[in-house]
Design a protein that fits this description.
With 314 residues, the chain is an alpha+beta fold. It contains five helices and twelve strands.
Length: 314
């Protein structure tokens, strides 16, 4: 008889796939790092890392490389999860010096989604779920993000090139509110620019679109509105950790366009894909309709033939 052994995860434990996240460098370069030692079972890699110096990805691109699975109790803390992840063979070869140099993100739709913070918080408090996947991001220096801090990826637009400089992390303290004015001031201070001479926009990678975040003149008009109408947490921005913010220096670039050539190409690809799906749907619909008509006609023909046949007389 064959003996079948089935591996199961105990109640109260999580089996979490761990990925390695390397942020894209829109300037055309990626961090130089050897990926040859990463595990990739059954081709489990989302995106391939281009060679250094090759045309690099834009903000929409995310590379996640599979490292392995970690089994851990839901009672364990975030720092204990980091320690277990660091023990994976693929991670140990990277010689990460400390758990404090690792950010942990949840993974949704093949990209980092929610930043897990507070080292000594138990995993069950994050409500990860049984199908949760996590990715690690290596930091150059330790960080201690507070509950009011929002981590944003900021990129300065290159005038006349429809491209952006190297992405830089910006920590925004939202203690005084999630207002457009507060974010604009933080960005201006970070890049040492006059606040009235910048425009900012949030990038939506799934749509390849940039949504401007209220111009200076609009901010003055908004002062008469209620505070809850001027929050970036709600629609249409839904700002959160990890979002990309494009910055335009109006001293050198005063047009309204935030998009890149890549955005144009990908939006056209999405349009063609949608048209292809629509065309395929109608073709299948017509085939099903034809089959239905044919089967109906066949049943009617069989019925008529039956009625025309003489009954057997005993």
């Amino acid at each position: 008889e064959d003996l079948v052994l089935k591996h199961s995860v105990l109640q109260g434990f999580l089996k979490v796939p761990i990925w390695w996240y390397q942020p894209a460098r829109p300037s055309g370069h990626w961090e130089s790092r050897d990926h040859s030692n990463y595990a990739s079972p059954q081709g489990s890699s989302w995106g391939a890392a281009p060679t250094q110096g090759a045309p690099g990805p834009e903000p929409a691109d995310v590379t996640l490389l599979y490292l392995g699975d970690v089994e851990i109790s839901e009672e364990a803390t975030l720092v204990e999860l980091k320690s277990k992840a660091m023990a994976l063979t693929s991670v140990s070869k990277l010689a990460v010096q400390s758990t404090a140099l690792l950010r942990v993100w949840t993974v949704e739709s093949k990209r980092p989604s929610r930043l897990l913070r507070t080292e000594w918080r138990q995993l069950k408090e994050y409500r990860l779920g049984r199908r949760a996947e996590l990715c690690l991001e290596l930091l150059q220096k330790e960080e201690d993000l507070g509950p009011q801090d929002v981590l944003l990826r900021t990129q300065l637009r290159i005038p006349g090139e429809r491209a952006y400089t190297l992405a830089m992390d910006l920590v925004w303290d939202t203690t005084r509110g999630w207002t457009a004015g507060s974010l604009r001031q933080r960005v201006a201070d970070f890049y040492s620019l006059p606040v009235e001479k910048i425009e900012i926009a949030k990038y939506f990678p799934e749509k390849f679109e940039w949504l401007p975040i209220s111009s200076w003149n609009q901010q003055i008009a908004k002062r008469k509105k209620k505070k809850n109408q001027d929050t970036l947490q709600g629609g249409p921005y839904y700002l959160k950790d990890g979002d990309t913010i494009g910055i335009k220096n109006l001293l050198f670039d005063d047009d309204d366009d935030f998009s890149t050539i890549r955005d144009d190409i990908e939006k056209e690809n999405q349009k063609q894909l949608a048209l292809g799906k629509k065309k395929s749907f109608w073709q299948q619909y017509r085939c099903r309709s034809s089959d239905t008509l044919l089967s109906g006609s066949q049943r009617l023909s069989d019925t008529l033939k039956y009625l025309e046949e003489p009954e057997d007389v005993p």
